């Protein structure tokens, strides 16, 4: 099975048009275009009944107290956890492409609705938790929201775009389901998978 994420080459930086946050000399970070990239996949195995799209960052600090704090850095040695940026399940077996900007085209303060969408069912990404304490941004973030790693993180972040071919038409998920729920529901049903990985940072010391 093959996956192409148009505009993102394996191991190369994710373009800013796909990012939730972009570098700013004045404020460290400003909102980006936040468009989902176009995904195209092929060679799904016989018996495929649906697809799942997952995008996640495995490099997110497990402790957030120093994140984006002036005069502090987030050590590259800090343990890291997965942060889900995009969850789309129950994509019909006859679909093999998601157009650019279809699931996100700009930052939506207070989030986007999860649930049925044009190409499947949206799950809830981890901006829901990350922005919960911000009164201007708090809400439920369904579908795609792109990279925005801490601007003071010593570690370059990696973004895994994945498509999984499943042997079931639906995972039976509804409501505000998250990435761990998707992984649990997929277990034992994955016929094939493909992945493209890009990188991103807002740390000026890593950008140069």
TrEMBL record:
Superkingdom of origin: Bacteria
InterPro entries: PEBP, PEBP-like_sf, YbhB_YbcL/LppC-like
Region (Disordered): 98-119
NCBIfam families cross-referenced by the UniProt entry: YbhB/YbcL family Raf kinase inhibitor-like protein
Name the record gives this protein: Phospholipid-binding protein
Organism of this sequence: Marinobacter nitratireducens
């Amino acid at each position: 099975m093959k996956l192409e994420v148009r505009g993102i080459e394996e191991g190369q930086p994710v373009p800013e048009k796909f990012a939730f946050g972009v570098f700013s000399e004045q404020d460290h970070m400003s909102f980006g275009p936040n468009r989902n990239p176009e995904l195209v996949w092929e060679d799904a195995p016989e018996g495929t009944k649906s697809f799942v799209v997952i995008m996640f960052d495995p490099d997110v600090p497990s402790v957030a107290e120093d994140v984006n704090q002036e005069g502090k850095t987030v050590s590259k040695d800090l343990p890291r956890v997965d942060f889900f940026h995009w969850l789309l399940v129950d994509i019909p077996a006859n679909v093999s492409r998601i157009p650019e900007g279809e699931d996100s085209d700009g930052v939506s303060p207070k989030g986007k609705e999860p649930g049925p969408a044009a190409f499947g069912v949206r799950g809830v990404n981890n901006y829901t938790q990350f922005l919960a304490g911000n009164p201007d941004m708090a809400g439920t973030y369904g579908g795609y929201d792109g990279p925005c790693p801490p601007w003071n993180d010593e570690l370059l972040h990696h973004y895994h775009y994945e498509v999984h071919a499943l042997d079931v038409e639906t995972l039976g998920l509804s409501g505000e389901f998250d990435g761990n729920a998707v992984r649990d529901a997929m277990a034992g049903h994955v016929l094939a998978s493909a992945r493209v990985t890009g990188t991103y940072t807002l740390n000026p010391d890593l950008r140069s």
